[in-house]
Amino acid sequence: MIAYMPIRVCSGRKSGVKAGFLAEIYTEHMLQAFFKAFDRHGYAVLSRKLGICLSGEKHENYGDWEEKGDEQILAMLREQARNPALKDFTFIYWNHRPLTHAKWVRMLAEAGFHVIERRTLAEIRAVITGSGSQPTLDAWASPDRSQEATP
Q: Does residue 86 carry a pLDDT above 60?
């Protein structure tokens, strides 16, 4: 069975916490929607300083001046791609901004990760559940799973 992990690049909009879970660090509304949508499944963020950060772990917060350049990020991702805990995932990149986010998808693939991209949270959910249909975000966030579409 394929292990899917939703992922998106980080944001400069952050809280003041020194360290915390991703949802405590990143305050940008699109990331918060992403976190809420996949809280029960798990998700990842591609940090411009730390590389891939998983939702179930605490991470350091950092200022924009600490971000690495693209070559440094790629080198870090290549190192992380050798990590057995990450290598079995197929990352589903939430590419709702294809003109500016395509480089992150390419970078993950070039580093050696399995990565696909989807444009909406519902499309990501459909991949994770294996359904051909695309449930609404409200149905996905609802604790009542009887609303989910079946293939």
A: yes
Sorting pLDDT into bands at 50, 70 and 90, what band is 6? very high
Residues 67/10, Cβ–Cβ less than 8 Å: no
pLDDT of residue 151: 38
Report how far residue 61's alpha carbon sits from residue 18's, in angstroms, rounded to the nearest whole number. 5
CATH architecture of 3-147: 3-Layer(aba) Sandwich (3.40)
- pTM reported for the whole predicted model: 0.82
With bands split at pLDDT 50, 70 and 90, how would you rate the model's confidence at 136?
A: very low
Per-residue burial over 89-119, b if 16 or more Cβ lie within 10 Å, else e, is bebbbbbeeeeebeebbebbbebebbbebbe
Of the candidates 26, 25, 21, 24, the residue with the CA atom closest to the CA atom of residue 11: 26
Q: Confirm if 131 and 151 have CB atoms less than 8 A apart.
A: yes
Query: 69: which residues sit within 8 A by CB, 6+ positions away?
Result: none
Sign of CA pseudo-dihedral 49, 45, 22, 13:
positive
Cα(116)–Cα(7) distance, rounded to whole angstroms?
A: 10
Q: Once rounded to an integer, what is the mean pLDDT over residues 16-28?
A: 96
Ordered by start, the domain boundaries in the chain are 3-147
